[in-house]
Task: structure prediction
Amino acid sequence: MTFRPPLLAATVLLAAACAAGEPRETDPRITSLTVGIPRDSVLRILGSGATGDSMANVYRREVYLLNGKMTEILFYSPAGLKEGQGPAAAESTLRPVILSDGLVVGWGWATFDSIARLHDIRARVR
Result:
């Protein structure tokens, strides 16, 4: 029997290879993320400086069941916008953070696009 990494982990590795073409991330909240940190730490990092909102700076969240694992995508808004509250944010201004079973597996549009293609997730136009 051979060892095969989980499909989502393989997707993240593929996305990391593709990310070389993306502009270098400069947002300090995103650059503070690391693969494997738990959801509560992610929310603390993304919402640093905000009070009274458990999902501060998260524009929207999407949840999927992929390969038997809960996959959550948090769309971080550097401007602190929320979907349905005020003007809509351009998708290109958001930063997706992808979690599987409550742990970060990656972030950025390259990672999101790889997972979306693999699982036929219909992304909004950005």
